[in-house]
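# nightly structure sweep
# worker-07 picked up a monomer target from the shared queue
# config: single-sequence mode, recycle default, output format = structure tokens
# input follows
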Amino acid sequence: MTDPQFPDTAPHGLEIDDCPPVDACARVLADAFARESATSWICGGSSTTRENWFDATLRADASIPGSRRYALTEVGGGPIAAAVLTPPGARLSAAAQAQWAARALARCGPRSVQRTLRYLDLTEAVAPDSAWTLEFIGVVPAAAGRGAGRRLLARLLADTPAAAGIYLTTADPGNVALYQHFGFVTLRHLSVGPLNVATMLRRRTSRP
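# output follows
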């Protein structure tokens, strides 16, 4: 099912997987976020650290009841885009927090842990209580410009039932106009270290 506001412009030969493995999504997002400012601030310039961070973070998100992962996959090939959502009011259990911290500390270092917690403390505090959170959505650079991101976003928007819509954050100013085009509005801007983070919300729209 697709939201009529977001026509399917991706080429044929792509399939949406609504239960992809964590490690596959982590690899896609690590590639997609290679030059994203918040990820660079948290992980530095190491591709290994970035992939380890996404792996630890997506495994933690997967422990939340009701969390969702999507991947857009080429038929006969691997995923080229991925997205992760968590449900309203989602919080990691104490055990999941401890596992994430241990994994991230061992594989990414203390700076990544400290900066992640700093980012989350500020951005989660202003998230609407009844909104889903779009934690990540990204397309690998080799597949950019083919409509993959639009198709994946259309699917998750159509699938998400939250009355208050979907909340996200972005530290990339170029993304603000992109998400506004998809119906998101900016709630406020936050300073997180050197980052200027926009918090955004897309309210639920009625279907025809």
